[in-house]
Please model this.
Amino acid sequence: MAKYAVIGLGRFGSTVAITLANNGLDVVAVDIDQDIVDTMTGKVGLALRIDSTSETALRSLNLNEMDAVVLGIGSNIQESILTAAILKKIGVGIIYAKVENQLHGKILELIGVQHILLPEEMVGTQLANTLVSKNILEYVNLSSGHIVIELVAPLEFVGKTLAELALPTYWGLNVVAIKYNYLAVTEDGKNVIEKRLNDMPGASDVVNEGDILILLGPKAKIDRIIYETATRQK
Model:
């Protein structure tokens, strides 16, 4: 089972910790405030009150054996930086860190933190792209510089196969999966529409009206398809 640690249990950190735990992952949640720790007890595998600026305390958690550590300390930048430096010193491999601003992020990058998260900017970017195109349901920045989006199939895509659309060739994008509507019958005989996922779409798969394409690609390519499909809607 994958193991994760979340340090700093504010709104961001607690949400990450609980979501991971709810998905069956082993989570250690850490904060310096005992009251906050108490609220997490029973919601994650282990909740502990620990001062994350103490190297001895962090070493006791064997964080170097975790699949990743999420650093959720944001408002106290000094504490965040010191904790990040200790995490690197004790051999933690993968660190995701919430930051308050670009400067905070740059400092953590210099320390060696690989994944910098600026939640307000991420939410703002997603909102802006949703407003630009009604076809965009999700817009997620990856640390690799690539973007994942959920795109409601534009009308010009409907009825065509993935081979005909040639998204990798024409758009420079890969189709990761397709969400589609499925007509199901309940136990009491009622017809209901369910969303199902085709996570291995092939070249012969046809895009139908209402399908949601999950696309992966470089930001410039993603921005292009958002702009062009939005322009054609108008």
In short: Residues 124-233 form a domain with the Alpha-Beta Plaits fold (CATH 3.30.70.1450). Residues 219-233 form the longest helix (15 residues). DSSP finds nine helices and eleven strands in the chain.
